[in-house]
Design goal:
By secondary structure, the chain is mainly beta. The protein contains two helices and six strands. The chain has a four-stranded antiparallel beta sheet, with no helix packed on it. The longest helix is centred in the N-terminal third of the chain and has 4 residues.
C-alpha cells in the first residue's frame, strides 16, 4: 500500500515532511531565536524546535522516489537520524506560498 501511495510524488520539486520530534525534552513559553534581535519571543512566534506538541514540519527538495523500495530521498531535511516521519505531502506553490505575507518581528 505504501509503494502505491508514493505514485506521482516524483513530479513535485519540493515536499513537506511531517515528523515526530521524539528527542524533544521540554519547552519554554519564551525563547531567544538564533537570528534577529537577541530578545525573548513567544514560542509560537518562532521556529524553535522544542515545542509542546513534538510535531515537526520541514519543507525540503525532493530528490527521488523509489516506489518499490518505499524510499523517498530529499535534500535539506533538518531532522536527526532516526526521527520518525509521520507523513509526506507535496509542496504546491499556488497554496503553500504567500510571497507578500508579513513576517512579524523578523
Amino acid at each position: 500500500a505504501i509503494s502505491q501511495a508514493l505514485a506521482d510524488l516524483e513530479g513535485f520539486e519540493f515536499v513537506w515532511v511531517i515528523s515526530f520530534l521524539h528527542m524533544n525534552e521540554g519547552w519554554a513559553p519564551k525563547v531567544t531565536p538564533p537570528r534577529g534581535p537577541r530578545r525573548k519571543r513567544g514560542l509560537f512566534a518562532t521556529r524553535a524546535p522544542h515545542r509542546p506538541n513534538h510535531i515537526g514540519l520541514s519543507a525540503c527538495r525532493l530528490v527521488s522516489v523509489d516506489q518499490e523500495a518505499r524510499v523517498v530521498h530529499v535534500h535539506g531535511l533538518d531532522l536527526l537520524d532516526g526521527t520518525p516521519v509521520l507523513d509526506v505531502k507535496p509542496y504546491v506553490p499556488y497554496c503553500d506560498s504567500f510571497p507578500s505575507a508579513r513576517a512579524g518581528w523578523l
